[in-house]
Amino acid sequence: MLVLSRKPNQSIVISSDIVVTVIEVKGDQVRLGIKAPREVTIHREEVAAEIRAANREAAQTGPGLPDLPVPPSN
Amino acid sequence: MNPPTSTTTEPVRQSTGPQQEAARVADVTIESSRFGALELERSQGIDFGPGLLGFPESGTYYLLDVPETGYYAWLQSGEEPEVAFLVTSPWDFFPDYELDVPDDVQDEISLSDPSDAEVLVLLTAHHDGGATALTANLLGPIVVNTRTRQARQIVLDDTRYTTRELLRAS
Questions:
Q1: Residue B88 near residue B134, CB atoms below 8 Å
Q2: Chain B closest CA to A8's CA: distance in Å?
Q3: A contact residues 22-41, partner B, Cβ 8 Å cutoff
Q4: B18 Cβ partners below 8 Å, 6+ apart?
Q5: Residue B91: helix, strand or coil by DSSP?
Q6: ipTM exceeding 0.90?
Q7: With contact defined as beta carbons under 8 Å apart, do B74 and B86 qualify?
Q8: Half-sphere exposure of B54 toward its Cβ, with a 13 Å CA cutoff?
Q9: Does residue B48 sit at the A interface (CB-CB below 8 Å)?
Q10: If you ran DSSP here, which 8-state letter would residue B50 be given?
Q11: What is the C-alpha to C-alpha distance for residues B100 and B79, in angstroms, rounded to an integer?
Q12: pTM of the predicted model, to two decimals?
């Protein structure tokens, strides 16, 4: 793993087309700005991990399902 | 799945039932683990680009209505026969649900007209003794451009929602 030190308004460049800039450091929080080509997907790691786990669990569903619920009538 | 309020115009789905529309020609067969051999049209596939998180091998899915329920469909992977997800439209069960489709996702699926968008959420069955509860992933919805047949799963930045919201029955 590469470890770099940066100050606010300084950036790192990844593979020439991704730029990560430290916008603000406040207490234990760092605000980052990320410029990347639109095909590059960026997620907060813990949220992406949660969705990945939820997808894997959802894929275990079926086919033998009981009566599927009908939505409440509005 | 297509309540009267739906604005969907395109027939995005095929049926797992026996009655296929006669004019269509099946040109792809999926030996699915849930439904057996599915004869489908490649042109009806939905392009998911890099796929769903955790399922990078599946870039194409077919939407198969669950017969007679009206609210449910399966997203069957075109590449992995054992991969399928039960889905529903969120608003039938969660009328207040809101989501913002990020600009980059709109670009990726060529979505310019909101009436082309169909939103689906993945469902998970939880078996507890004899009872089964379904939960919906409202944090990671799927947006389909019904015109171009492109779709993406969005990861919402919204703390109101979780990946397992209970589906309430009537």
A1: no
A2: 24
A3: 38-39, 41
A4: none
A5: helix
A6: no
A7: yes
A8: 19
A9: no
A10: T
A11: 29
A12: 0.79
